[in-house]
Amino acid sequence: MVAREHTFKQSVDLMFERAAATLDLPSGLADQIKANNNIYMVRFFVKCHGSYQIFTGWRSVHSEHRLPVKGGIRFAPTVNQDDVEALAALMTYKCAIVDVPFGGSKGGLCIDPREYDEEDLERITRRFAQELIKKGYINPALNVPAPDMGTSDREMAWIADTYRNMHPEDINAIACTTGKPFSQGGIQGRLEATGRGVFYGIKEFFNHPQDVKDAGLEGNLEGKRIIVQGLGNVGFHAAKFLEEESGARIIGIIERDGAILCEKGFSVEDVAAYRAERGLAKGFPGATYVADGKRILEEECDVLIPAAVEGQITLENARRVKAPVIAEAANGPIAFEADDVLRQAGKVIIPDAYLNAGGVTVSYFEWIKNLSHIRFGRLDRRLEAHRGVQIIDAIEEMVGKPVPDHLRSKLSYGADELDLVRSGLEDTMSTAYQTMREIRNSRDNVPDLRTAAFVIAIEKIAQAYIEMGL
Ligand code: NAD
C-alpha cells in the first residue's frame, strides 16, 4: 500500500476546495456540492465450494443534481468506503466537465476476483446486485453502474439480468447498467471508450502549440516517447491508439509484476498478447525488464500515463518524476501534495476528471440507446449513403469527369454506430479540453488544467442547484 499524506477522498476534496476558493459562490453551496449525499454499505454471504463467505460492498451517491447518478463498480481486495466516496465525487465532476447529464456515484466490492472461478463470481455479483437493487442503488432512472477495475461487460450483463428478473415490468430494465456486451444491449465502442478518450484528450493537448511549448515540448504526437502504467482496459486502449493512430512510441509499460522498456517503442497488441499467454510482461523479446516497476514512473519520457490505480505519485516520488506532461488516465493517480510539487516544477497535468471521462461519455450514449430501444444509425445510415451517391452523380454531371474511387467510397458511406460513437466521443473530449484551457488562460486565479476542470464542474453544478431553487 502506497503511503499517502491524505486519504483519496481528502485529496479530491482539497483539489475541489482549491478551485472553489477562486469562485464567488453563495455561502454553504460549495460544501453542499462537495459532500457525498449518501452511501449504502452491505454485508452478504455466498456459499462457495461448501463454505459460507462474507463479502462487504458499498455504493455511494455523491450528487443527485442530475438523475440517474452514474459510476462504475470496482472489484478489488483494497476497496474501502473512503475510496468509493472519492470515486463517486470524481464521477460528479467528470460528468459535469464533459457535459454528460448525470450525477455521480461509485460502487465497490471487497474481493480479489482472481481468486474465484466464473461460476462463483457470477453468484457473488448477482447477490451484490440484488442487495443494491432492493435499495434503489441500481435502477435505470436513478443509479446506473458501469465497469471499473476488476469488472467488465460480463458483470454488467449479470447485473442487468438480475435487475430484469426483479423488475420484469420495467420496459427500460436493460438501461440499468452500461458497458454491457453488445448482444445484451451494449453499444459499439464502449469497451475501448475510456482509453480512446484518453487518446483524444492527449491529441487535443498537442493540437495547441502554446500548451505544448509551455510544457517544454514541440510538434505533435508523432514520435513522442510515452510510458504507460497499467495495461488493463484503459491503459491498453490508450497506448494502442496512441501507437497506432498517432505514431507515438510506447517506450515503457509498467505492470504489477515490473516494467518493460524498449526505446524504439512496443507493439502494444504484442505485449498484451504475450501477457495474456504468460501472465507476465517479464521476458518480452527485445525489452529491458525492471523488477521495481514503480521506479519507471521516474524515467525520462515526453508523456507519462498512469492508468492503473490511485495514489501512485506522492510526496515520496513526485520530485523525481521527469515527464513534462502527466496524463491521468487512472482516477486519482496523483495525491494532492504531489500535485503541488509537480505544478511548481512546471509539469503539465491533464487531469483525471477530464481525461478518463470517455467511458462515462459512451455510457451516456449506451443509456440513450437503451431508452430509445434502437441502435444509432439504424434509421439514417442508408439515407446518408444514398445522399452521398446523389452528390457524386451531381458532381460528375457538372464536371463531366468521374469522381475517383477513393473519394467515391468515402462520399457514399453512411455512418454506423461505431462511427457515430467515436465522433461523439472525439467531439466531447476536444470541446471539454478547449473549455478547460479557455478558463485557465482567461482567469488569473486559475493557473492549471485541474483547477480549471474543477471550476467548470463547480460552476455547472452550482447553477443547477441555484436554478432548482434548493
Ligand atoms: P483494469 O483492472 O482493467 O486494469 C488495471 C491494470 O493496472 C491491470 O492490468 C493491473 O494489473 C494494473 N495494475 C494494478 N495495480 C498496479 C500497480 N500498482 N502498478 C502497475 N500496474 C498495476 O482497470 P481499468 O478499468 O483499466 O481501470 C484503470 C484505472 O482507470 C482505474 O483508476 C479506474 O478507476 C480508471 N477508470 C476506468 C474506466 C473504465 O472504463 N474501465 C473509466 C474511468 C476511469
> What proportion of the residues is helical, as a percent range?
40-55%
Shape: globular
Strand content of the residues, in percent?
15-25%
The total tally of domains equals 2
CATH architecture assignment of the largest domain: 3-Layer(aba) Sandwich
As a whole number of angstroms, the C-alpha radius of gyration is: 23 Å
What does the largest sheet look like?
Answer: 7 strands, mixed
Q: Which ligands appear in the coordinates?
A: nicotinamide-adenine-dinucleotide
Question: Which class of secondary structure composition applies to the elements?
Answer: alpha/beta
List the uncertain runs: none
Head-to-tail CA distance between termini: 41 Å
Layout: helices, strands, pairs:
Elements lengths: L7 H13 L8 H6 L3 E11 L2 E13 L5 E8 L4 H17 L5 E8 L7 H17 L8 E5 L5 H14 L26 H14 L2 H6 L10 E5 L3 H14 L2 E7 L2 E4 L6 H11 L9 E3 L12 E4 L18 E3 L8 H9 L3 E3 L1 H4 L2 H15 L8 H19 L5 H7 L5 H26 L6 H20 L2
Helix pairs in contact: 1-3, 1-16, 3-16, 4-5, 6-8, 6-12, 6-15, 12-15, 15-16
Provide keyphrases for this structure.
470 residues, binds nicotinamide-adenine-dinucleotide, alpha/beta, Rossmann fold, 7-stranded mixed β-sheet
Notes on the protein architecture:
With about 475 residues, the protein is of the alpha/beta class. It is built from 16 helices and 12 strands. Strands 9-8-7-6-10-11-12 form a 7-stranded mixed β-sheet, sandwiched between helices. A 5-stranded mixed β-sheet has the order 1-2-4-3-5. Helix 3 crosses helix 16, helix 4 packs across helix 5 (about 155-165) and helix 6 crosses helix 8 (about 235-245). The two termini are about 40 Å apart. About 50% of the residues are buried. The mean pLDDT is about 95. Bound molecules: nicotinamide-adenine-dinucleotide. Nicotinamide-adenine-dinucleotide binds near residues 229 and 330.
